[in-house]
Amino acid sequence: MAAKTKRYLPTLMAYVNSVSLVELQKVTITWNPNKTPVKTKKGVSGYTRGSGEVTVSFQTAVPMEGPEFDFVAAAHSDDEYRLQFPYGSKTITSEGQFTDGSLDGAIDSNADMGQNFHGTFNAPK
Q1: 92 φ, ψ to 5°?
Q2: Which among 103, 105, 106, 100 is positioned nearest to 67, based on CA atoms?
Q3: Distance separating alpha carbons of residues 125 and 50, to the nearest angstrom
Q4: Which one of 41, 62, 69, 95 is at 20 to 30 Å from 84 when CA atoms are compared?
Q5: How far apart are CA 64 and CA 96, in angstroms?
Q6: Rounded to whole angstroms, how far apart are CA atoms 122 and 125?
Q7: Adjacent-strand bridge partners of 94
Q8: How far apart are the C-alpha atoms of 92 and 58, rounded to whole Å?
């Protein structure tokens, strides 16, 4: 009997307040639980839990009508957003704010918008 071929995620989907962002070119998620080593005379004997954090970077092309989500307005506001990133049978969820971003354009290429998000580090569910 032949071994079953594994299937892999074709791309990483992103949701802002439960709305899918489909025009993304790239999404990078980094997380840091901010665990602090507890050091004794014997060396590292354990870790204390910190207040974890997630940083998300988005890269998207900019349609003539404007982006599907207004990252600039989101960064300017004090509103908190909920991001979701399904992977396999689990989902990474983070609540936080959009922070810095960029808009880039050059001759013979499309305009790109980059945006960063900083939020909570929650256990995947």
Answers
A1: -85, 130
A2: 103
A3: 20
A4: 62
A5: 28
A6: 9
A7: 83
A8: 15
Structure tokens at 115: 């945006």
pLDDT per position in the chain (125 positions), as tens? 667 787 776 677 888 998 888 778 888 999 988 888 899 998 988 888 888 899 999 888 888 888 888 889 999 999 999 999 988 889 999 999 999 999 888 888 888 888 999 999 888 88
CA 59 to chain centre: 11
Paired tokens of 93: 């969820």
The answer to whether residues 21 and 41 touch, using CB atoms and an 8 Å cutoff, is no
- Kindly write down the DSSP assignment for every residue of 33-46, as one continuous string: ---EEEEETTEEEE
Structural domains of the chain, with CATH: 14-120 (2.40.30)
Residue whose token pair is 């918008």: 113
